[in-house]
Design a protein that fits this description.
The structure is a single chain. The protein is mostly helical and 121 residues long. The protein has a domain of 69 residues. Helix content is 62%, strand content 0%. The protein has four helices and no strands. Helix 2 packs antiparallel against helix 3 and helix 3 packs antiparallel against helix 4.
Length: 121
């Protein structure tokens, strides 16, 4: 009974006290601004983004060992990002992610194939 009364008091308080912290209006004004000198962001050649992605996906695949389907996807992404990172200047992280991701891809691929092959109809 005490919990029910506390719940009712809490709900009443929230409905009476909560309000929008910004003015709410029915109509909105939208301005479209065009700019001619926009530039797309570019990765620097020395940015190790592919290596970081490869290593992150490879470590994530290790953490996802109980779920072989997710492990396979994360490990495969680690191998793909590592292979892309081989062409860049800084490739230490890409090599590490590739080396960690490749066995995890093979192991999880074999387990997924076995699960798929011996599933019950």
């Amino acid at each position: 009974m005490k919990k029910l009364i506390l719940l009712l008091i809490t709900l009443t308080t929230f409905t009476n006290v909560s309000y929008a912290s910004f003015p709410v209006t029915e109509t909105q004004q939208t301005d479209i601004v065009e700019c001619d000198n926009t530039e797309l962001p570019r990765n620097r050649e020395s940015s190790p983004i592919w290596g970081v992605l490869s290593l992150t996906c490879a470590i994530l695949s290790i953490l996802l060992i109980p779920n072989f389907y997710a492990m396979f996807i994360a490990a495969l992404l680690g191998v793909i990002f590592g292979a892309i990172g081989f062409n860049k200047k800084l490739k230490g992280l890409a090599i590490t992610g590739f080396i960690l991701g490749l066995p995890m891809t093979i192991i999880s691929g074999v387990v997924v194939f076995i699960i798929w092959a011996f599933r019950e109809a």
